[in-house]
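Why run this: before we spend reagent on co-expression, it is cheaper to look at a predicted model of the complex and decide which construct boundaries make sense. The entries below are exactly what would go into the expression plan.
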Amino acid sequence: MIDIKQIRENPEKFKKAARDKRFDVDIDRLLTVDAGIQENKKQLQDITTEINKVGKSVPKLAGDQKQKVLAELSKLKQKASALDEKLKELQPEFDLLSLQVPQPTDDDVPVGKDDSESVEIRKDGKVRQFDFEPKDHVQLGAALDIIDIERGVRLAGTRNYFLKGDGALLHWGVLRFAMDFMVGKGYVPMSVPVLMKDEAMTGTGFFPGSEDQTYRMEADQLNLAGTAEVPLTAFRMGEILKADELPLKFAAMSTCFRREAGAAGKDTYGLYRIHQFDKIEQVVICENSVEVSNKFHEEILANSEAVMKALELPYRVVNVCTGDLGRGQVKKYDIEAWMPSRKNYCETHSASKFYEFQARRMDLRYKDPASKKNLFCHTLNNTVVASPRILIPILELYQNADGSVTIPKVLRPYMGGKEKITPRQD
RNA sequence: GGAGCAGUGGCCGAGCGGCUGAUGGCGACGGUCUUGAAAACCGUUUUACCCUUUGGGUAACGGGGGUUCGAAUCCCUCCUGCUCCGCCA
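The model came back. Tokens follow.
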């Protein structure tokens, strides 16, 4: 959410942000509603002052005079309640509109309409050239009997799967490796609830807007989070933190649920786009400073790059263009891993910087010692690793001519020291 | 799910229709004293918004609604916590 004062002062800035990010929001209407609210509030306040003043004199009066004053009061109260009605009418519209105003991006974010216009920042690792006909991860998964998509779909519908045997171990192994890495970096490991109230969804910026991407438990009015960003970022929602608590650095492992509505027919093959997966997510909550935010944005990106390097996967880092940014994101780096079967670099990580956008929605503040004011925190988050998507490059890039898959060195401790996944001996 | 009790400022804890944004204690901060510290003493210590020159006003005692000229205080409702009962992976 954006400070309404900023929108009043410079509406053009936010209209431009909406255009660049391709969000549709009526900022002029917002300002009209805002002006109405301000005017009504002012009048209401004046009348309330009057009522309070007159009301105080009541106990001292008696007889006719008392009746006269009471009559006057009842007239004032009618006026007040009319103004109150008007405010109650305007407020919901104001709330809805103001939640929709997107945050302008940093100046160095490329303006563009979709991922084709995002800008590559750097590449790391060598794309493997095969001297045999490589299999894709679905073929490998079937041949090694570690992935069962057919039965996943039969039991749970499209975009569902089972991982089996070494497939399940590899999945948990890469998650465990990533979590251990983050704990080593000083991030606090967290196990989190994934059924979230609307407040947490709104606070993190997913609502309004992504309701159709979210599994909803209507009977309990709860939502299945699509990422641990929601519980982690909202963890201290509504609180005023002590300055010396900052920065808060968290890492959580959670199962993530996504409806993928509107993606019908897109990425239907294999484990790329699925309804349920597991992810280690990192979240930083820091002081209200652009410099500090920028520092942590680089830090959380570096953390994830370190994981990719440890896994020895070739990847590139992309500065995501305006059209692919969320409403609240100021800047976003994606890490894309090379996936042989897709013949492309594909997103495996997404590092977002929000400044105070999420904190303002959640009313997450800290007491600033310098100004003695309560300031909104800044928030950031990034994937550490998401599996099974990460298994796509791992399986495909680590495969051998004999059909086996070499296990990345750093994952072997998590798989009982095993070096290779070999085909089933039927 | 049923019954009972409770929810006040950073914390503890008073207040139970107007003089209470809220006594007191603890903590924190500033000062006096001291070579320094402790103790003692004095003072400060919620937040949001509005008008403004110092300053003034409005709102908030779990949320929402009601009664009343006036509510932290009375009523309704919801939420949360605790205790007991029931049920259950």
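The mean pLDDT of chain A is 93. The first helix of chain A runs from residue 4 to 9. Bring this page to Monday's planning discussion.
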